[in-house]
Amino acid sequence: MRIRKRRRSPAPCDKTPHAYVESLRVEAARNRLETTDDTLDRIAGACGLGTVDTLVRAFRRRLDTTPTEYRRRFRTQPSTQSPQTASRVPAAR
Questions:
Q1: Helix axes 17-35, 67-74, angle to 10 degrees
Q2: Three-state DSSP class for 14?
Q3: pTM of the model
Q4: Predicted confidence (pLDDT) per residue in 28-65, tens digit
Q5: According to the 3-state scheme, what is the secondary structure of 43-87?
Q6: Sign of CA dihedral 30, 21, 64, 67
């Protein structure tokens, strides 16, 4: 007799593994929309959603809005200095 072991998913019990992964990807996309000027195509690829169409569908499912509208509402201005440049600026005396 063979004993099968069930793999444990990192997803909480109330979500399927697909829903859990999609929520992580949408969260990563939200962060990029708020803090970068990247295009939707670049964000979709970087977050594992593949295409802009998939990004839009995931946003509508999870947040009931589009990525463009989300960016418009929650955008924070990106820093004009990169962290590397900011660390080289001498402190005021």
A1: 50
A2: coil
A3: 0.69
A4: 999 999 999 999 999 999 999 999 999 999 999 999 99
A5: HHHHCCCCCHHHHHHHHHHHHCCCHHHHHHHHCCCCCCCCHHHHH
A6: positive
